[in-house]
Amino acid sequence: MRSTMVCLLFPVGILLVFLSFCLSTTSAAIVETSFHAKNLTTSRLCQNHVIVAVNGSLPGPTLRVQEGDTLIVHVFNESPYNLTIHWHGVFQMRSQWADGPEFITQCPIRPGNSYTYRFNLTGQVGTLWWHAHTQWIRATVYGALVIRPRDGQKYPFVKPYREQTILLGEWWNGNVIDVENAALATGVAPNNSDAYTINGWPGDLYPSCPSNKTYTLQVVPGKTYLLRLINAALNGQLFFKIANHNLTVVGADAAYTNPFQTDVVVMGPGQTTDVLLTANQSPGLYYMAARPYLSAIAVTINNSTTTAILAYENATQTTPVLPVLPALNDTPTAFRFESNMTALVTSPFWSPVPQTVDESMYVTMGLGISECGNNQTCGGIFGQRMAASMNNQSFVLPSTISMLEAFYRNVSGIYTTDFPDQPPIVFDYTNTTLSFNQALMTTPKSTSVKQLKFNSTVQLVFQNTALVGIENHPMHLHGMNFYILAQGFGNYDPINDPRKFNLVNPLERNTIGVPTGGWAAIRFRANNPGAWFIHCHLDVHMPWGLGTVFLVENGGTPESTLPPPPADFPRC
């Protein structure tokens, strides 16, 4: 439901007083809706399964708003599991309690309870999304969040004839909570998914179930369409192509980019990409297809291909054309796509890159092991539990209070503020001969975080390691965007690599795929007080500990001070 705020015309003497208010609120609205999360019996791959879904659909409902709107979502948890909803990429200025990650900004919504998320969407236009942020429920609890320009403003590219969201997902023939819990119980990697999906459907290339439904997008010859691509898969980094068609990238993570043409898009879980598609081929049927980008070595994955159909109006053929997708391990293509994107600095929301740095961090990241525990049997490497870490700190969520509430109420004993700015041990990080060095692999568990002064500028270099194996990690920062200054392979060189930094028009986004066996340098301004999770968006790695939290202190004004929690805030 959309209710618009209206500016009335007043006599001339009063009109000038209200002019700026009218300009700032023109088209701003309150958009209010409800999410009912409950069990749903549905069929995929010719099997019936019970999943948790929002409002009876997979994917869940697409939320459409305009920049400047306030969104109110009443979430009713009618499922048998704890639940939170994260609004992926939303800044949550003055609404930090609505961010959603379990035990970071809130305690979960218990079964039979509800919570209302309220937040404003100012300063962002493009494609974001929402998803559950409790265990693996986001495998089926997710949907698109589309933010269009407010009235009177336009896209900085040709007006599309139509828009369509394309959500890439992942499907298990089983209860995803059981899959995750079984793996965590013995410290091993979880079972792989059984299929990938496009808008909820695997497509018709799965031989075990040739009667699968397939999503179809009807197009008119000669028209241009805006496709909003979202990778909502749990653990699959994906290549995406449309047979015989080029795409023009115009946005990523709700930030405008300089347009560039490509025939393939690469996205890690959590990332979004806006592309223009012109229906300029012979009228017919063309597959849209996605399959994994496998950056790790000697790892077994679900390497299947999901498809949808691009159908031209009045097409007569019956068999769609299939695109030639990159090889599973085509790292050069993945790197070329990521590094080709730059920001559109003429965007009304662009801010120049901060030129001075207050906090400089060099953070190693990757897999490892942690102790199995007394009187337990574990199936990980060396008989231990599989783990993951940043600067050899394997992150553990609290369980009695959210970190944001502990921060707000100054509750001690929930976390420590000693997350290191540098790796505790210096070694040849990307040397694969050290992959199974048990001393380097072993990581302690902690709830160690980094505290930041309000409005400080942070430069962070992610350094992938070869421990257990090299791999691309999609790192997501809550509450703020960051600038991607540079990326490369091997170990970061603090003398020479800063010369490669793009300080003019670097891409701005909230999730970056740190190159396999390489590094990425980002910079951001900590201008949002609160507790902001930064973590790998491969959900297999998050419970293993690949994350930490930035605690941003209050500024000196009411606008830069963390507000109190809402009255219906969930309790632990």
From TrEMBL:
<dbReference type="InterPro" id="IPR011706">
    <property type="entry name" value="Cu-oxidase_C"/>
</dbReference>
<keyword id="KW-0479">Metal-binding</keyword>
<feature type="signal peptide">
    <location>
        <begin position="1"/>
        <end position="28"/>
    </location>
</feature>
<keyword id="KW-0964">Secreted</keyword>
<feature type="domain" description="Plastocyanin-like">
    <location>
        <begin position="163"/>
        <end position="315"/>
    </location>
</feature>
<dbReference type="GO" id="GO:0005507">
    <property type="term" value="F:copper ion binding"/>
</dbReference>
<protein>
    <recommendedName>
        <fullName>Laccase</fullName>
        <ecNumber>1.10.3.2</ecNumber>
    </recommendedName>
</protein>
<dbReference type="InterPro" id="IPR008972">
    <property type="entry name" value="Cupredoxin"/>
</dbReference>
<dbReference type="InterPro" id="IPR034285">
    <property type="entry name" value="CuRO_2_LCC"/>
</dbReference>
<dbReference type="GO" id="GO:0048046">
    <property type="term" value="C:apoplast"/>
</dbReference>
<keyword id="KW-0439">Lignin degradation</keyword>
<dbReference type="Pfam" id="PF07732">
    <property type="entry name" value="Cu-oxidase_3"/>
</dbReference>
<feature type="domain" description="Plastocyanin-like">
    <location>
        <begin position="39"/>
        <end position="151"/>
    </location>
</feature>
<dbReference type="InterPro" id="IPR033138">
    <property type="entry name" value="Cu_oxidase_CS"/>
</dbReference>
<dbReference type="GO" id="GO:0052716">
    <property type="term" value="F:hydroquinone:oxygen oxidoreductase activity"/>
</dbReference>
<dbReference type="InterPro" id="IPR001117">
    <property type="entry name" value="Cu-oxidase_2nd"/>
</dbReference>
<feature type="domain" description="Plastocyanin-like">
    <location>
        <begin position="418"/>
        <end position="554"/>
    </location>
</feature>
<keyword id="KW-0677">Repeat</keyword>
<dbReference type="InterPro" id="IPR034288">
    <property type="entry name" value="CuRO_1_LCC"/>
</dbReference>
<dbReference type="InterPro" id="IPR017761">
    <property type="entry name" value="Laccase"/>
</dbReference>
<comment type="function">
    <text>Lignin degradation and detoxification of lignin-derived products.</text>
</comment>
<dbReference type="InterPro" id="IPR045087">
    <property type="entry name" value="Cu-oxidase_fam"/>
</dbReference>
<keyword id="KW-0560">Oxidoreductase</keyword>
<dbReference type="InterPro" id="IPR002355">
    <property type="entry name" value="Cu_oxidase_Cu_BS"/>
</dbReference>
<keyword id="KW-0052">Apoplast</keyword>
<keyword id="KW-0732">Signal</keyword>
<comment type="similarity">
    <text>Belongs to the multicopper oxidase family.</text>
</comment>
<dbReference type="Pfam" id="PF00394">
    <property type="entry name" value="Cu-oxidase"/>
</dbReference>
<dbReference type="Pfam" id="PF07731">
    <property type="entry name" value="Cu-oxidase_2"/>
</dbReference>
<dbReference type="InterPro" id="IPR011707">
    <property type="entry name" value="Cu-oxidase-like_N"/>
</dbReference>
<dbReference type="InterPro" id="IPR034289">
    <property type="entry name" value="CuRO_3_LCC"/>
</dbReference>
<keyword id="KW-0325">Glycoprotein</keyword>
<dbReference type="GO" id="GO:0046274">
    <property type="term" value="P:lignin catabolic process"/>
</dbReference>
<keyword id="KW-0186">Copper</keyword>
